[in-house]
Specification:
It is built from 10 helices and 13 strands. The protein is α/β, with parallel strands linked by helices. The longest helix has 22 residues.
């Protein structure tokens, strides 16, 4: 089996990706601060900001492909700590691009739908970027710098993702469910729209990108545009939890450090044509809870 190196293996997306990739790949993972055990995956601790350290890992593994999921992915953190998050989101990413170029191997990079301001959805790969927070700006910078180093990289813009939690990291789903099960109200935006996908579905898109050696921008959103509030109602319906606990709210009601885009829904028809086939959100959620 060919060797796949996954950065951010202890994170929510990376951990789910490592589970799925084992069907076709011999999987290796890099983590930095949070060590986890993943069955059948060889893990290496390394600082992606340190080019020599990452170069040593590449030399040891000799990977056939890389999927770079490691990131400082919380917009509020990036807004508060712009220099620290830039090093993780941009410097580390350029290190990965350099090494994939040296080894002449496919690489998929996880960018974000937050490269857009949300004012002109639905967004295709050719839509002009317009980030309104440091996180979005850093992902745009990483896209540009990585492609300048290595134009063979797949720049995969990821949607809002949900799914099974890793031992070290969870999605928004877990907190919402815990609140609902303990009878707490959950306030969700009626005016923030995304095209969500489960982590396993998103991971399948990333694997498709490296297997087909996609070059350039690729959107990996789900097939349904939905508000946070509507998603919450769907979740309560599937889990038979009190729907009355889901309360409608608006973005303007909540003060946050990072600005929020109102609608970063992605047009992922390019990926669909390649064979990326997300299920309906209802099917995705049912599958997640069947596996729990």
């Amino acid at each position: 089996m060919k060797k796949l190196l996954v950065t951010g293996a202890s994170g929510f997306l990376g951990w789910n990706l490592c589970q799925l990739a084992q069907k076709k790949w011999q999987v290796y993972g890099i983590y930095f601060s949070q060590k986890v055990e993943i069955s059948n995956v060889s893990l290496f601790k390394a600082d992606l900001r340190d080019f020599k350290a990452i170069s040593d890992v590449f030399s040891t593994i000799q990977p056939d492909a890389v999927i770079h999921t490691a990131a400082a992915s919380q917009p509020n953190f990036c807004e508060t700590y712009p220099e620290e998050s830039y090093a993780i989101n941009v410097v580390a990413s350029t290190n990965i691009a350099r090494l994939c170029n040296e080894y002449n191997i496919p690489c998929a990079f996880t960018s974000t739908d937050l490269v857009f301001d949300g004012e002109n959805p639905v967004y295709s790969e050719t839509s002009p970027v317009s980030p309104i927070c440091h996180y979005g700006e850093q992902k745009v910078a990483a896209e540009v710098k990585m492609s300048e180093i290595n134009d063979a990289i797949a720049l995969c813009r990821m949607p809002l993702m949900f799914g099974s939690a890793s031992p070290a990291s969870s999605s928004f789903l877990q907190g919402m469910i815990n609140s609902l099960k303990t009878g707490k109200e959950v306030n969700l935006f009626v005016d923030e729209f995304r095209t969500p996908a489960s982590a396993i579905t998103a991971a399948s898109g990333l694997l498709l990108a490296v297997e087909k050696k996609v070059k350039g921008i690729l959107h990996l959103g789900g097939k349904e545009r939905i508000s946070r509030y509507e998603f919450g109602l769907l979740l309560t319906d599937i889990l038979n939890l009190p729907q009355g606990l889901i309360k409608p709210g608006k973005q303007a009601d909540v003060k946050m450090v990072a600005k929020r885009s109102p609608d970063t829904s992605l047009d992922s028809s390019k990926a669909f044509a390649l064979g990326y086939q997300p299920l309906s959100l209802k099917e995705e959620l049912i599958n997640i809870f069947q596996d729990c």
